[in-house]
Specification:
This protein is an all-alpha fold. It is built from seven helices and no strands. α2 (20-42) crosses α5 (123-142), α3 (51-76) runs antiparallel to α4 (105-119) and α3 (51-76) crosses α6. The longest helix is centred in the middle third of the chain and has 26 residues, at 51-76. The radius of gyration is 17 Å and the shape is elongated.
């Protein structure tokens, strides 16, 4: 399994430095993809159509985002995986990262957002966010900062966080009506 992970990681990272425009897209996606996605979510707060449901989805995506990253911090207490560039697996084309590799916080955050939208039936935005999450996750491998399994693990923690939030933070509950109606 580790061999497959390395082969897939090197295949994606091996495309780096062969096209300046693709490199620019992947570097930009790696650096700015998460903030742009968060801004796209936040900007929907004032949407008029189905306002309460949509606000519930937005709050849920923020909760899943935070829960997924918190779960990653727990994993990092037990898993200390070196970055692929430190293991001479990838060629790094961005700045080094100071923390461990598994799981990818970028993948966790973006897949949590996409999963929340899809779980709540907001298919158009959910599909767009899923495509963005895939691009951002792939960009992290492309630039050499993560293994493929790091982003798959991050995607899994993001989806798990989204499911957990959906189970706990119920639409039309007293808390939901307070949070979505207060603004």
């Amino acid at each position: 399994m580790r061999h497959l992970d390395i082969v897939l990681t090197q295949a994606l990272n091996g495309m780096a430095m062969s096209s300046a425009s693709v490199d620019d897209l992947m570097i930009w996606s790696s650096a700015f993809g998460v903030p742009v996605l968060v801004a796209a979510v936040a900007g929907q707060w004032w949407r008029r159509a189905d306002r309460l449901h949509h606000r519930h989805v937005l709050v849920s995506s923020g909760l899943a985002f935070c829960a997924g990253l918190a779960f990653n911090q727990l994993i990092l207490l037990f898993v200390h995986r070196l970055r692929p560039y430190d293991a001479n697996v990838t060629h790094l084309i961005i700045e080094r990262s100071a923390d461990f590799s598994f799981p990818s916080d970028h993948a966790t955050a973006t897949f949590a957002i996409a999963a929340v939208f899809l779980l709540h039936g907001v298919r158009k935005a959910g599909t767009a966010f899923l495509l963005a999450a895939i691009l951002i996750a792939a960009s992290r491998v492309y630039v050499g900062i993560h293994y493929v399994s790091d982003v798959l693990g991050g995607a899994l923690t993001g989806v798990m966080a989204a499911v957990a939030v959906k189970l706990v933070y119920r639409e039309n509950s007293r808390l939901d009506r307070f949070v979505t109606g207060i603004f």
